[in-house]
Amino acid sequence: MSTATGARMRGDQGTAGVDAAIAVTGLLLVAFFVIGALRVVGTGGDVDAAARAGARAAAAAYDPATAQAAASEVVAGALADRGVACENLTVKVVGDTAAGSVVRVEVTCTVGLDDVALVGFGASRTMHGVGVEYVDTVRGGGTP
User: Fold this and answer.
1) Which helix (H) or strand (E) element contains residue 69?
2) Which of 26, 59, 103, 111 could be stapled to 95 by a disulfide with Cβ–Cβ 3.0 to 4.6 Å?
3) Per the domain annotation, does 43 fall within a domain?
4) Quick check: is 143 in a domain?
5) How many CB atoms lie within 10 A of CB 1?
6) SS3 60
7) How do residues 73-94 score in pLDDT, each as one tens digit?
8) How does DSSP assign 29-48, residue by residue?
9) What's the pLDDT band for 100 if we cut at 50, 70, 90?
10) pTM for this entry
11) Between these two residues, 120 and 40, which has the higher pLDDT value?
């Protein structure tokens, strides 16, 4: 063995541990980013689904006040069932409950992302969902 080769080999000792630490750190950051992205996308889908459920509940109501109450209750329940913890939840019902009209429910939910903020996601993100439902013409508006 030549002295040049032996010197080079002794100088490289310990670099495998450093390389492994850098690789593991990089893989963890990528994994946390993927988890954060999946949480954002999944929560957005959950908010959309809750808005659609709220629109169905609002379309079954006979007056705007009942429609607002029903939509709010259904949206909050749907989000709770899906494990979405909204810091600020607003449910807005737009439209009329008359037969043949359209009811639109707009949901806004602020979700905390503190656990994935390390990889570039903010501390929270506001999600929006919209559900649209037609009021049944056979049922009609007015009193039941």
Assistant:
1) helix 64-81
2) 103
3) yes
4) no
5) 6
6) coil
7) 999 999 999 988 888 999 999 9
8) HHHHHHHHHHHHHHHHHHHH
9) confident
10) 0.76
11) 40
Element at 6 (helix H, strand E)? helix 3-11
List the beta strands (DSSP E) in the chain. 86-95, 102-112, 124-134
Task: Indicate whether 9 pLDDT > 70.
Answer: no
Interacting residues of 57 by C-beta distance below 8 A, sequence separation 6+: 67, 70, 71, 73, 74
CB-CB neighbours of 109 under 10 Å: 26
Q: SS3 of 87, please?
A: strand
User: Comparing C-alpha atoms, which of 108, 125, 44 is closest to residue 71?
Assistant: 108
Query: Exposed (0-12), middle (13-18) or buried (19+): which is 104, by Cβ within 10 Å?
Result: middle
pLDDT at 32 exceeding the cut of 80: yes
Q: How do residues 113-127 score in pLDDT, each as one tens digit?
A: 777 666 677 778 899
Bridge partners, 90 (sequence order): 108
The verdict on residue 142 lying in a domain is no
Sequence-ordered list of residues with C-beta below 8 angstroms from that of 79, at least 6 positions apart, any chain = 46, 47, 50, 86, 89, 109
> Which structural domain, as residue segments, surrounds residue 119?
3-134
How is residue 11 annotated by DSSP?
H
Half-sphere exposure of 90 (CA within 13 A, CB side): 8
